[in-house]
Amino acid sequence: MRASRLRPPQRRATPVMPSETPPMSQTTAAAAPFGLAGDDGERRRALFQETAAQRLQRIALGTAWALKPPRSRSLPGLARLWLVDVVDPADGLPDPDRTVNPFGTCGIVHDPGVETLLAGYREGLFPFAHFGPLKWVSPAERCILVLDELHIAKRLRRQMRQGRYTVTFDRDFEGVITSCAGRREGRWHLTWITPRIMRLYGDMFDAGHVHSFEVWNEAGALVGGGYGVAVGGAFFTESQFSHEANTSKIGFTVLHWHLAQWGFRLDDGKWPTPTILDMGFRSVPRAEFRARVAEAAALPGKPGRWTVETDLKTVAAWQPGGEDAKGKKEPAND
């Protein structure tokens, strides 16, 4: 018997008005060649692509990744899912509780458009694939941050007070996502942020549902950042990168300050990593995660382009869980 399907609701994407685009300073404009001005289509086509050799390498490394125990235990279920889908492809979203392997795969993404992806996130799903068709994934546990549980290390607070960095939102999405997909020192270059994923999340960025945070050093170079999906009052972090020590944590902390002020309830980090565990993320069972997302997604959230509304000294002084995390906004320092 086929698993029951959840059909995505038909919603109209929130338009992004030109007036919501943050102006770029001369320093930032020089450092961020992938800014919002110019021919977005041509720029993205040039950025969001790979050579035939790069594609072959990704397929080879992705195959090796999948065959390595214990991940290889996921392959029989994935093969069955693929065969069933070839014979009788299903419309709509899969049931997030009916996974076919330990990884959490539960379906094939047939219509990877903005509304389908948003509907998937509302159900606790996200798309994933190193190669081949995009799959819907719903892990048994999710690593989340309840915003008033954020931990800001003393060393990070000191670094933010030094004034060596500037943080922006939605200023250079293309630069951020390509950096997130870039090589990591000392590691094989395997990423799930493929050109197809870049284009999909680029469409969601244009619709005002994906947001980036950027960290710039004193020379105007992009040295840290990340991006994620906003659905109502829930944020779903997709990826981060750092080219200088702690820069992604600086941007991440500024992001969470704003999410708290804007009434967001949680940030989903998907799987636990040392970086997010150090900042207060914790794993919860799928059922609890889906209940939290359903509650948060019903909130109004923050549509359109985002801009930074405070400075690093204010964020460095923030005590999550205190009065300023309950809707009382601190004034920005002069």
TrEMBL record:
<protein>
    <recommendedName>
        <fullName>Leucyl/phenylalanyl-tRNA--protein transferase</fullName>
        <ecNumber>2.3.2.6</ecNumber>
    </recommendedName>
</protein>
<comment type="function">
    <text>Functions in the N-end rule pathway of protein degradation where it conjugates Leu, Phe and, less efficiently, Met from aminoacyl-tRNAs to the N-termini of proteins containing an N-terminal arginine or lysine.</text>
</comment>
<comment type="similarity">
    <text>Belongs to the L/F-transferase family.</text>
</comment>
<dbReference type="GO" id="GO:0030163">
    <property type="term" value="P:protein catabolic process"/>
</dbReference>
<dbReference type="InterPro" id="IPR016181">
    <property type="entry name" value="Acyl_CoA_acyltransferase"/>
</dbReference>
<feature type="compositionally biased region" description="Basic residues">
    <location>
        <begin position="1"/>
        <end position="10"/>
    </location>
</feature>
<dbReference type="InterPro" id="IPR004616">
    <property type="entry name" value="Leu/Phe-tRNA_Trfase"/>
</dbReference>
<keyword id="KW-0808">Transferase</keyword>
<dbReference type="InterPro" id="IPR042203">
    <property type="entry name" value="Leu/Phe-tRNA_Trfase_C"/>
</dbReference>
<dbReference type="GO" id="GO:0008914">
    <property type="term" value="F:leucyl-tRNA--protein transferase activity"/>
</dbReference>
<dbReference type="InterPro" id="IPR042221">
    <property type="entry name" value="Leu/Phe-tRNA_Trfase_N"/>
</dbReference>
<dbReference type="GO" id="GO:0005737">
    <property type="term" value="C:cytoplasm"/>
</dbReference>
<keyword id="KW-0963">Cytoplasm</keyword>
<feature type="region of interest" description="Disordered">
    <location>
        <begin position="1"/>
        <end position="27"/>
    </location>
</feature>
<dbReference type="Pfam" id="PF03588">
    <property type="entry name" value="Leu_Phe_trans"/>
</dbReference>
<keyword id="KW-0012">Acyltransferase</keyword>
